[in-house]
Specification:
single chain, Serine Threonine Protein Phosphatase 5, Tetratricopeptide repeat, about 210 residues, mainly alpha
């Protein structure tokens, strides 16, 4: 589970190859309920949709009455798979998570609640070109910092919000929000893929 903790971060920060490798490695150590959930999400976030879907199907078959599986994790995994290609379908699937989205679903591998349903909903809304709605979801994560604590989605929500402002044509707010993200990550390794992407995006606004 600790290995998968870092795998989620690798996936979100853009190190997809490493995330897929580590998720597969974790499954060879143990294939428990919690490890399968965490690996399914890691694969989905790292772009290995076939592996993510296979684990999701297995989880639903094994644990059909597990609320955390059926109403939190699997919709989040499936939305991650579909958000870019079929955002409207992804958003419909994610409706099941609404009562639980601010909760601290098990398994927990981070300090603080993950708020993954909120984050992937924002991504799907961006893919559907609904910048205003996406911005509200990203802001929900930012406003919940006493819940999010040091979960990586906290700072990444600011980057998502900046991108939503760009999509909406609000350059002033976009610049300010990018700057907030850079301040949070001022000591980050300079070669993190998502940080390099953010800097390139910001440069285009100048």
């Amino acid at each position: 589970m600790w290995q998968l903790n870092f795998t989620w971060s690798e996936a979100e920060f853009g190190n997809s190859d490493q995330a897929r490798k580590d998720a597969a490695s974790a499954l060879t150590l143990a294939s428990t309920h919690d490890v399968q959930i965490a690996a399914a999400l890691a694969f989905a976030r790292a772009g290995d949709h076939a592996a993510a879907q296979k684990l999701a199907d297995e989880l639903l078959k094994q644990y059909p009455s597990d609320t955390a599986v059926s109403s939190y994790w699997l919709p989040t995994v499936r939305t991650s798979i579909l958000s870019r290609s079929k955002p409207d379908e992804a958003l419909r699937i994610l409706e099941a998570t609404t009562p639980f989205e601010l909760g601290q679903a098990q398994p927990q591998t981070q300090v603080g609640a993950l708020l993954y349903p909120v984050y992937v909903r924002a991504e799907a809304l961006m893919a559907a070109h609904r910048a205003g709605d996406a911005a509200r979801e990203y802001q929900k994560i930012i406003d919940a910092r006493v819940i999010v604590l040091n979960c990586p989605l906290g700072p990444l929500a600011r980057l998502g919000l900046a991108r939503a402002y760009v999509m909406a044509g609000d350059t002033v707010k976009a610049k300010a929000t990018y700057q907030e993200f850079f301040i949070l990550w001022k000591d980050a390794d300079s070669d993190i893929p998502i940080l390099k992407e953010a800097r390139a995006e910001y440069a285009k606004l100048q």
